[in-house]
């Protein structure tokens, strides 16, 4: 299914949040996406987190998101959020929304 979504927007992680699961929860809450990754796969603290998310826009467009983050030695999170969709518009607009929301604000 990932390959069917030809438009990709790659957003660098830039946040003050220092907890991997907390950052994932913040992205889910601020974008209204559903997490496809099993909760049991997200339980352990290992300094790295990868999760797949899904959303459907009000216009019926699907978007898949892969979040991949790593905790650095200074405690900051780094990584990327890859957004895939069938249309350029949703990939770009969701990327813009994530860029605005990911820092830890409302």
Automatic annotation (TrEMBL):
Top-rank lineage group of the source organism: Eukaryota
Domain Coatomer beta subunit appendage platform: 1-98
Pfam families: Coatomer_b_Cpla
PANTHER family, sorted: COATOMER SUBUNIT BETA
Protein name: Coatomer beta subunit appendage platform domain-containing protein
Organism the protein comes from: Datura stramonium
